[in-house]
Amino acid sequence: MLVASFGPTNPHRGDAIVATFFWSGSTTRITSVTDRLSDGTSVGNAYALVDSISAGGVSMATFAATNVGNFLDPNPPGEKVLLVQATLSDSVPDGGVMVSAWSGVEGVSTQALGMRRSASGSGSTSPTVASAGSITANAGALVYGVTMANRLAGRSGPTGFSNITSMSDAAGLVAGGDYVVAAGAGSFDPQWGWGFNQPTTWLATVLSLNAASPAPTPSGAPATRVVFTVQPSTTTAGSSIAPPVKVAAQDSVGTTDTTFRGTITVDIGTNPGAGTLSGTRSVAAVNGVATFSNLSINQPGNGYTLQATAVGLTPGTSAPFNITAPPPPPPPPPPPQGSGITLDRQNGLLGSVPAPGITIIKKGFNPVNPHRGDAIVATFFWAGASTITGVSDHETNGKLVGNTYRLVESLSAGGLTMATYVATNAQNFPDAFDERVTLGDSVLVVEASFSSPVTRGGVMISAWVGVDAVSSFRSLRERSCTGSC
Question: Is residue 11 over pLDDT 90?
């Protein structure tokens, strides 16, 4: 691991940090770059690799993090100091770090990083010129150059550049960094003059970081109120209001205050349908305008309004709008033509009851409900003299479903009883065809209640597509017997 600190004083929050790591070895790689405080607290800024290069048994890699934060600014001298560290894939015999922090760099990393180039070479005379090559940079950009060599030697800096720092150690590594802030857009090619007197390898990198965009010029007096500039439109209940609602901070004559960066919050004003507003309701304004892209209301009604508020500003009310009821779900698909009656779902259980005193036998169609409109056949088996007092259905969340189960036939012999019930055109439960069925919550359960506790029993349930929806005993044909029939 290679570590460097900003001690004794931390940089400012919002700075860009550039960290260049140097080490002996050409196969070892940096696996991560992170930051922490000197007391061990993780800071968590994101460091992106800008460029790296290896040659002559030495390596150099530069990383950058923009808009840094999560540390004390200022810090007590020598306490909670910010450290930047690189974790390497292998141990190295020698290495170092150069860290620098820069104010005024663009805070979005993808917009901050401009061109970068790296190169390597060797020489044995003085001066040996080291250059990564030419890059272009925008006006106001930071042009950062760094070079290293694998043998102790002096060097002269690039013309027009200022030195950041120079470093060397007894093992033979030597490095230094230089910079310039571009007065205007153009090309930059920092060149160092190394004073070699024997064969030596050099590495060099140059990069640019763009300056932060200037704050927008104020376009009027300070804001005094919030105004809906894109009104909410008629939308289906539960769907996002489109186009997105926009609210602006404006002055008394209707000019948007582009310097306003405060938070604007919207809520329901007039509420004819007792609806609830969902989505991101509080948004920070950008150039004076807050955009609400995912607002929705869950209940239909005519004449809803929204109200917008912001601290210190007069609230604003939207124009009325309507929320319409969603269309009904599509009906379940009919059974294939010519297929007649087909088995849709089935389940069952048989055995001893789980505890004494049980007067109910029940089973669900988990994991998937049948279709609405099916006929459900439920046959119950039990030992003992108890009788069924009723058959009903409900969801696993306890919600009563309410289909009517008619006794088709029952038979008792040898201390055993079996009874079959049928419900046609079953309804009032989530249909797996067009609704989400949640295991343990909305599965359809059929149950029989008994006149007295049963010790052993079970039930077999099945659902059938294509059965006539009208239930009558005239349409049923049944027969039961014991022994041989």
Answer: yes
Task: At 226, give phi and psi (nearest 5°).
Answer: -115, 140
Residues 6 or more apart whose CB falls under 8 angstroms from that of 382 comprise 361, 416, 417, 450, 454, 456, 457, 458
The tokens for 137 are 């940079």
More confident site: 334 or 27: 27
Task: Count the Cβ atoms, other than its own, within 10 Å of residue 449.
Answer: 13
Measured CA to CA, the distance from residue 145 to residue 50 in angstroms comes to 12
- Please state the pTM of the whole predicted model: 0.49
Contacts of 48 (CB under 8 A, 6+ apart): 63, 64, 65, 109, 113
Percent of the chain scored above 90 by pLDDT?
76
Structure tokens of 70? 């999560």
Q: How large is the C-alpha radius of gyration of the chain? A: 38
CA–CA separation, 130 vs 153, rounded Å? 13
Tokens of 367: 């994991």
Q: What is the pLDDT of residue 436?
A: 59
Q: Is 177 left (phi over 0), alpha (psi -120 to 50) or beta?
A: beta
Distance (Å, whole) CA 9 – CA 105? 20
User: What are the CA-CA distances from residue 146 to residues 17, 19, 38, 150, 438 (Å)?
Assistant: 15, 11, 26, 14, 61
Per the listing, tokens 């500003």 go with 313
Lowest-confidence pick of 84-88, 293-297, 328-332? 328-332
Tell me if 84 sits within 8 A of 47, measured CB to CB. yes
pLDDT at 473: 43
Q: What is d(CA 397, CA 442) in angstroms, rounded to the nearest whole number?
A: 6
Please name the residue that has the structure tokens 């939308």: 235
Instruction: Compute the distance between CA of residue 213 and CA of residue 243 in angstroms, rounded to an integer.
Output: 29
Complete DSSP assignment for 300-342: -EEEE-EEEE-TTSB-EEPPPEEEEPPPPPPPPPPPPTT--SE
d(CA 396, CA 399): 7
DSSP 400: B
DSSP reduced 3-state for 125: coil
3-class SS at 21?
Answer: strand
**367 cis-preceded (ω within 30 degrees of 0):** yes
